[in-house]
Amino acid sequence: MTYYYKLGKIPHKRHIQFRQPDGSLYHEELMGMRGFSGVQSLLYHLRPPTQIQKILLERTVNASYEESSPLCHRHLRTVTVELGADAVEARVPLMANADVCISIARPTLPMLYWYRCAHGDEVIFIHDGTGVLESQYGILHYQVGDYLVIPAGVLWRIIPELGIEQRMLVIEASGHIEPPARYLNRYGQFLEHSPYNERDIRPPEKLGTYDEVGEFEVRVKTRDRIISYLYHHHPLDVVGWDGHLYPFAFNIEDFEPITGRIHQPPPVHQTFEAPGFVICSFVPRLFDYHPLAIPAPYNHSNVDSDEVIYYVSGNFMSRKGIERSSITIHPSGIPHGPHPGMYESSIGKERTNELAVMIDTFRPLQLTKQALALEDKDYAYSWIA
């Protein structure tokens, strides 16, 4: 849940006359979730945001998925994903179901158009790189470790910093991505026990208002299609906005870990929730402090979820053979746990310095053919002592 925020100039009441210097009206736009009952913001444009000059079908988006395969644990070495293109075109889809699509991107170019996802929110985790996320809400500088949370319908583009290598984990939802409800009180404020709060959320920093004419492209993804819309005026012509809905950044290193005397279950790492999946953050933390504690996780069966872990940095205390930017997939239906020797060797250790992003889905994931090209085929047998 984001807090109330505003940038630029707005009228003193909603839905009243708000005039430009030449006497014409600014054009009010409500952007909100769940009809008129969710969080929302009001934006004020120089021109109506509905003035489209041309509509083109850019392309269909049809990922090619693997055919039937055995139920087994998987390991993808994504370090070799190729560099190139912009932050949208560079996406390599690795796995998906009806609720979420997970991709890797290593962009090298700025986006020359603006983009919006019409059917759900997106989270872009910045593994490497710096740059700017630009939207009609203003500019937001991003850095290593940021989760960029972009609500559905927001117009945005990413401009990477020149000469800085970029690596991004992209989580595209079919619904809305929000903080877990148990972290919030009835008023929408973060509770005292939550592992992050409003101070850790970075909203857009500065509003840029562009009064320009020409040809400007906006690409909209809706399910399996990308539609290109051409405008005669610059789409970022907002002079002011206020509300609770906007893109924001939250850095993984601002997540405060919850620890205990004995091993804590994965929900203590939860950072966001969405229909059909959750996102968790594993961060440096003290280990369990019961005198007989075993810090490594116990074997467990994911009865209702597929577990995906993206390894950011450090040595993951329960795994062997994992490298930076590896992805493991432990599907529902079979148990998984620490690799041989890791359970015992964790005893007596006081802390871990790992960083990782976990996505647990409640419907099975299907791997793409691009993912199969990155797979470590021996991983399923790596629990043999």
Characterization of this structure:
The strands form seven sheets. Strands 18-12-9-14-7-6-28 form a seven-stranded antiparallel sheet. The longest helix has 4 residues, at 342-345. With 385 residues, the protein is mainly beta. 2% of the residues lie in helices and 38% in strands. It is built from two helices and 28 strands. The mean pLDDT is 94. The protein is globular. The termini are far apart.
Indicate the topology.
Layout lengths: L4 E4 L18 E6 L7 E6 L6 E9 L13 E4 L14 E5 L3 E6 L8 E4 L4 E7 L2 E5 L2 E5 L3 E5 L5 E5 L6 E7 L39 E10 L2 E9 L4 E6 L4 E4 L18 E5 L2 E6 L2 E2 L13 E2 L4 E8 L12 E5 L4 E2 L5 H4 L5 E2 L2 E7 L4 E2 L1 H4 L13
Parallel strand pairs: 8-15
Antiparallel strand pairs: 1-17, 2-3, 3-17, 4-16, 5-24, 6-7, 6-28, 7-14, 9-12, 9-14, 10-11, 10-13, 12-18, 15-16, 19-20, 20-27, 21-26, 22-25, 23-24, 23-27
Shape: globular
Largest sheet data: 7 strands, antiparallel
**End-to-end C-alpha gap:** 46 Å
Evaluate the radius of gyration.
Answer: 22 Å
Low-confidence stretches: none
What structural class do you assign from the helix and strand content?
mainly beta
Number of strands: 28
Q: Which sequence of SSEs, written as H and E, runs from N to C?
A: EEEEEEEEEEEEEEEEEEEEEEEEEHEEEH
Instruction: Classify the beta-strand content into a percent band.
Output: 35-45%
Q: Which whole number gives the mean pLDDT?
A: 94
The quaternary state of the protein chains shown equals single chain
Please report the number of helical segments.
2
Kindly report the spatial arrangement of strands forming the biggest sheet.
18-12-9-14-7-6-28
In which range does the helix fraction lie?
under 10%
